[in-house]
Amino acid sequence: MKKFLIIFFLIIIVGLVGFVLVGNFTYSEGSRTGYLMKFSKKGFLFKTYEGELNLGGMNAQNNTVLNNIWEFSVKPTDKAIIDSLTNFENAVIKLKYKEKLKNMPWQGDTPYFVYEIESIDRRQ
Question: pLDDT tens, 29-55?
Fold first, then answer.
């Protein structure tokens, strides 16, 4: 019985370590530019910061503007990013992000996590 418990706990520990490693693995990195439409703190148990960026676009058939919405998350520990995003609502910004394979529930709703913001002035 003692051997069974030791093996059982070792399997659980290895499984948890594997889950955390997969959850922190960066699948891709990139940037997106658009109008910041929404940035909010939401959630029932875990309050996370979520936002929407309107990337825009054109429909070639009838020359109309399309709404291409990209949803992203900000880790609650990134206070500088959170403060910056609250000031940039309805502005054109460039967001640099990392896409994770699996996000933990306390990190955010989407696998895209913003780590840097750059203001873009389109009036040039």
Answer: 999 998 898 999 988 888 889 999 988
